[in-house]
Amino acid sequence: MEVHNVTAGAATFTCNAYLAVGDRTVLVDAGAMDDVVEVVREHTDHLDAVVLTHQHGDHVAQLDAVCEAFDDPDCYAYGDHPRRTHAITDGDDLVVGDERFEVVYTPGHAADHVSLVSGTSLFSGDVVVHDDGAFDYGSFGRTDMAGQSRERLIESIRTLLERTPDTAEHMYAGHGETFHGDVHDVIETALARAEKREPKYPDE
């Protein structure tokens, strides 16, 4: 599966938005970068669907622009949204690129958060990331803001660990770098850190 981070190098704060090109060309999150539509067009002139991991502003700010530019592709989301055409829930199957992914409900960082798991790949949104400003290997979404829960996030990481196969070797997270290698080890590291229940950032 050919995956491009179409918000890489953005000057403004945004999530990583991933374009999976294949049998079903899908954008996972829309990001908040002003010219994301132009970058998507560098790789494809057609978008079958957009899948939202969750609806924080850095993940959906450009959703309207993307949908308008690509003639209203299918939009999959757990939480309600004016652009949503398909509600998804835990256990659903979605084709992204050339692979079939299982939807895993992973709240804690956001009440509507989902991750996507296949035999080889994980789109983890913000529940688990490879590296960020807090940790260089195996980090997790912040839970210090209103409506967030560290305890619920820990449950979600445990669930994700159980449902991510040992064969997974590509992790596309909402922030930080794409990871290629032992995805299970990254999730286990993130879980161990989250379970310490210490503030992720010193100013929390």
From TrEMBL:
Q: Which InterPro entries match?
A: MBL_Glyoxalase_II (IPR051453), Metallo-B-lactamas (IPR001279), RibonucZ/Hydroxyglut_hydro (IPR036866)
User: Where is the Metallo-beta-lactamase domain positioned along the sequence?
Assistant: 14-175
Query: Which cofactors, if any, are listed as required?
Result: Zn(2+)
> Which protein are we looking at?
Glyoxylase, beta-lactamase superfamily II
**Native source species:** Haloarchaeobius iranensis
Molecular function terms in GO for this entry? hydrolase activity; metal ion binding
Transmembrane intervals:
none
Q: Which Gene3D superfamilies match?
A: Ribonuclease Z/Hydroxyacylglutathione hydrolase-like
Task: Provide this UniProt record's keywords sorted from A to Z.
Answer: Hydrolase, Metal-binding, Zinc
Taking the record's annotation, the residue ranges forming a coiled coil are none
Superkingdom of source: Archaea
Q: Does the keyword DNA-binding apply?
A: no
